Amino acid sequence: MHIKKLKLKNFKRFDNQLFDFNDDVNIVVGDNESGKSTLLEAIEICLNFTYRGKPLSSELTTDLFNNDCINQYLAGNKSQETLPELLIEAYLDGNPKLKGDNNSEKVDVEGIFVRIYFDTELSDSYATFKKEPDKVSTLPVEFYTIDWYSFGWNRLTHHNKNINCLFVDPTRLHPTYGRAKYINNIINAALEKKSRSTLNLNYRQLKAKFDDEADVIEINNKIDADNEISNKSLKITADIATNTSWESGLQLAVDNISFNQIGKGEQSQIQIKLALQNKAQDVDIVMLEEPENHLSHINLVQLISYIENKHGKKQVFLSTHSSYVLNKLSFDKLCLLSDRYIRLKEVESGTVKTLARLPGYDTLRAVLAKKIVLVEGPSDELVLKKIYLEKYNCLPEENGIDIIVVRGIGFKNYINIVKPLRHPIRVVKDNDGSFQENILEWSKDYIEYDFIKFFSPESAEQYSLEPALVEANGDTEESLDLLANVMLSKQTYNKYNGRTGLAEKKAFFKDWYSDEKSGSKKVDSAIRIFDTNHDIKFPEYLEKAIDFDA
Description:
single chain; 550 residues; alpha/beta; Rossmann fold; six-stranded antiparallel β-sheet; 20 helices; 18% strand
């Protein structure tokens, strides 16, 4: 069983939002405060009737409601009819018992909803409460009630909801979240029913022996030996009621160390692996909150491989800030929370395979950026940042522009990543001696995408960044000397200065950046350009590339 789509109304940051999902893996990404955790919490509320691991009925606060709907209520006349309601609907597939038309779309489908709304039985009490509306400063959730129903009009309990969801969130190991119950929920999922029963029976038998210990008998004989407290027998005893299960008294140990005392990274791995192992076969949906937290790269590689191979038929929701996690688990499973919600399900298969094989590239930067400049190498990045800094007195990142070096996976893979988002893309590319072949012909596949623009010098002589800089500053020998004084080390400048005439000095530049060490030389020169206070003329194509208003 899995969630096909989720509808939220007035839940936290989402006033009215529809999310559709993949049947297998959903990788939820977004900027900070974009709603990644909120989305997972909504699923937990709807499927488990819990909020952050605790019963929803005990956690009903104004924090669950969207601020806009609260402010609209407070700005109005505060009549009963203006009280906002909160609705979470999970449209499911896999259990006909949940089928019906008891949903906001009035369609006959499988699903579950949670509705939090004003309890009309409290109308008289509310009328008294709002007699002085100016004194009402918050949403009165004390007058609210909660419904948990299937679309088939059946009231749900934890025994008849017919779908099981497990939320693995390392922060819930904190004592205030009831960590014992939380970790034991995960352990339960990893145990077969027979094993759980055996544990429970043996644990109760062990506790029953407690009363017969000689030291315990001696202590109990002394508690109220004279019957001053009570005329009945008073003693300390172990609770062996059948409803007292092993979860309340046993804990997980790792190498004989309490689970709560081991490292955070090891805790995270064990939780996730136990949840996915699911020998009980009673978990349909597993939600993982940022599995990369507290893990070294090698441990993350191993964990993601485990998730990739072990999630089986379970639907997985995974929030992350890690490009590695996204690339490795399949880029086309991405669910982006931004100005709008979008699934990148149409990313070209060749790009998806490339990223899975070469997952160590920061593709998430490209997805989250609102405006992107793609460049060949770090030299181009530094020079463009220098141009932007001189023009706007700040770095491009401060205005939401991300300059990304494409490195090993190339321009086309990065373009394929961002293309479905339709974010403005500027491609700064060397012409490598042929503007016609390497720019015009190469970019023909993107003619229909007006948000993708290409920038390169047309002259074959300006085949890369350094020759273009030389040409821009090569009108006179004096201006070229100034560029050389910035770009070259003192030792190299002395060699350059030994040449005579403009043509010879230009030739020195060309030869200097064309040997086997040219990569490090180019980066060194770009750093000097970025750090200098001297005026340098920059190629026109670079000036245009950072102008997103043109």
